[in-house]
């Protein structure tokens, strides 16, 4: 069959051209895809690709399958599956509120300790409920310190001295976790234009002594692209007797109503201000300071909070591709792994992940782990390694939990607006990956006969816009969904008459 000309890899005709052409199963790349890459100006070595049956049989396509590439968030497949297998689906992180002294006539004679244990659901509402329980236990006033215990991970603060990723220090995706991350350290505000066309900012996080104002300019524009005019909010330290000002800057679309969250306040100060705000709202008094430390062995438990079980958390990780939750999970894996207490937790986590890979017959040569989320310029994984991870996940006793965590094409998560009109819609379950120079998809796609195929595709290309690489990857998935992979030894033929 003669392939029609491809005018642009961004046009749907590109996908049609892919599915209309048969290819030799022995070839590394289907000729239509190779042609697509050529017309887009993408060298063959920018792509790593595996298409293989879930069941027995050789790969249908293998192109640079053993080349280590940047996976973007496709790396989350490794972290979440190892987490399920080593921690178990019922694992929960926890937070404890402890008192270091007795409560006498409503007054705590000592410090209050907030002890972190990788609780990924420690929201302001959860913290408020813990403080409310302390009130029910008779605590009205404490004059000691609030001690923040992050000793579950080593070192306790991984964020110190670390540069922001892609120069976006305020972005929620850039928050580096610790064992006691409260509310993701995010200040949440509603930004809207009132009936008098005035821009209003409504704080949603009750931080004591913090005022949120703005110096933003209203412009005509698309609300879905509000962040194009956004600038990092300015933090103005308080003068004696004054509030701390957080000033929003940049431009804002004139007909836009959004909730925005950002990280600009140092995390110890953030927790102290949040506790003061919540405690005052509960009618309590606190006249002490805040410091880091560890809970003494004889501290008394006042309240405890547990996260959702890991079976649910992996959905919260993989569906929206949450970096902070993934990084916390990696640290939790490291904490549970064998090793000396003083050994860096990430070092123990890497040993655990590599051990798991080798234990499943996956060669870890070229595998580079940084934070487990893919939000990294150094992380590397090969298409063959991700293929092995997917096979292990499909064969795992926790396969239902693992598979259910993956975005469904055209339905939810990071694939809700992709692959909506082709055969993959509602059928493909795939983890996305995206960085400035990376686009990846890894998961399962049913072919034209309904047989599931493992597909791992990773583009690493500095010169090509991500949207163009995304179109190429989506066209490939579309091609898999329209192709009949009939027999292991025979060339697959395209769907159609």
Mind explaining what this structure looks like?
- This protein is 26% helix and 24% strand.
- Strand 21 (483-484) and strand 22 form a beta hairpin.
- Residues 1-27 have low confidence and may be disordered.
- Helix 1 packs parallel to helix 11, helix 3 (76-87) runs antiparallel to helix 6 (310-318) and helix 3 (76-87) packs across helix 7.
- It has 497 residues and is α+β, with helices and mostly antiparallel strands.
- The protein starts with 11 loop residues before the first helix and ends with a strand.
- It has two domains: 12-89 and 312-494, 3-Layer(aba) Sandwich (Beta-lactamase), CATH 3.40.710; 94-306, D-tyrosyl-trna(Tyr) Deacylase, Chain: A (3-Layer(bba) Sandwich), CATH 3.50.80.20.
How large is the share of residues in beta strands? 15-25%
Kindly report the name of the CATH homologous superfamily of the largest domain.
Answer: DD-peptidase/beta-lactamase superfamily
Question: What value does the Rg take, in angstroms?
Answer: 26 Å
Poorly predicted tracts of residues: 1-27
- Named CATH architecture of the largest domain: 3-Layer(aba) Sandwich
Largest sheet: 5 strands, antiparallel
Could you give the count of β-strands? 22
Morphology: globular
Number of structural domains: 2
